[in-house]
Structure formats: structure tokens, C-alpha cells
Design a protein that fits this description.
Strand content: under 5%
Radius of gyration: 17 Å
Distance between the termini: 43 Å
Largest sheet: none
Number of domains: 2
Order of helices and strands: HHHHHHHHH
């Protein structure tokens, strides 16, 4: 990764963090690009150069968090979803539950879905079926996660892993 890419990713993360901080005190639809740029201490053109929407910022942040969490927890395969990697999926989402609640309260499930899809989609589509599989799991995981959020994360990650095994294996 080049120095420019690292610097740009750092700025993007600062802006995403600024948006999340603002979401804690102000409705999402009332937050302006100027406010995000000001809080992140960047010029508004930096925002426009890197993002096309505030939802895109949330997707970016979720993917960065997953990548970082995966590295810190020794997750070897961070793309795709199957029963073998259900454990890190649920543990990660449980750890960021406050952020997930903030995202869903702001009606940003689309950004959450996009993060799933970007993670699950085949990097090199070997077949049409792989594309459909990625969409299937993205929507399914979003549905499961939305239910878990609605239930205020009342089940522990272990419970969710066991339920997933029952559903997928049956």
C-alpha cells in the first residue's frame, strides 16, 4: 500500500468517525458535509473527492472495522460466509453493537447491506452462481443481524452461532 493510499484511507476514516460522532448528537439527515469536514478537520473537497454519500462513509467504516477486527483476532478468511466463519461474524457484530444500533436507528441498513455485499462478493467472479450466492448471503445476514439488533442483542454470539448451525445444516 502506497503512502498516498494510507494517507487517503486515514482521511476517509477520520471523516467517517466524524460522521459517527455527529450521529450520536444529531439526526443523520440533518448532518451536513460541512459539519463532517469541520469535525474531521479536512476541507469539504476532501469529502467530495472520496465519498458520494454519507451512507458510503458508513459502509467504508464498517469494512475498515471488520478488516481491523479480523487482523486482531486472527481471522484468516474475512471474505465470504459459511458456517465455519460464523463465529467471527457474530463476535465482531456483538462487539460493535452500539454502532449497529446507531446505524439502524438512522435507517442506514442499506449501508450495512453494502458492507456485507462488498465483503461477500467474489473478487473474481468465477461463475454467475457466485454472484447470486453473495447476494443471497448478504440479504440473509442483514435479516439475521436486523433481528438480533431489534432484540437488543439479547442472545449471545454463541447462541447465534448455534442457531446458524441449526438453520444452515438442516
Amino acid at each position: 500500500m502506497s503512502a498516498n493510499t494510507k494517507a487517503n484511507d486515514y482521511l476517509k476514516e477520520c471523516m467517517a468517525d466524524a460522521l459517527i460522532d455527529l450521529m450520536k448528537v444529531k439526526p443523520f439527515n440533518k448532518i451536513t458535509i460541512d459539519e463532517i469536514a469541520s469535525k474531521a478537520e479536512v476541507h469539504r473537497t476532501t469529502w467530495y473527492r472520496n465519498f458520494s454519500s454519507k451512507g458510503e462513509m458508513i459502509t467504508f467504516k464498517l469494512m475498515r472495522l471488520w478488516d481491523s477486527w479480523g487482523k486482531n483476532h486472527g481471522v484468516v478468511v474475512k471474505e465470504g460466509f459459511n458456517i465455519d466463519n460464523a463465529d467471527p461474524f457474530y463476535r465482531f457484530n456483538y462487539e460493535i453493537k452500539d454502532l449497529l444500533k446507531l446505524i439502524t436507528d438512522a435507517n442506514l441498513s442499506g449501508a450495512l447491506y453494502e458492507a456485507f455485499y462488498q465483503t461477500l462478493k467474489p473478487k473474481f467472479e468465477d461463475s454467475v452462481a457466485e454472484g447470486y450466492k453473495a447476494r443471497f448471503y448478504s440479504y440473509g445476514l442483514l435479516g439475521v443481524l436486523n433481528e438480533w439488533i431489534d432484540r437488543d442483542f439479547s442472545e449471545k454470539p454463541e447462541d447465534m452461532i448455534n442457531m446458524s448451525r441449526e438453520v444452515i445444516i438442516r
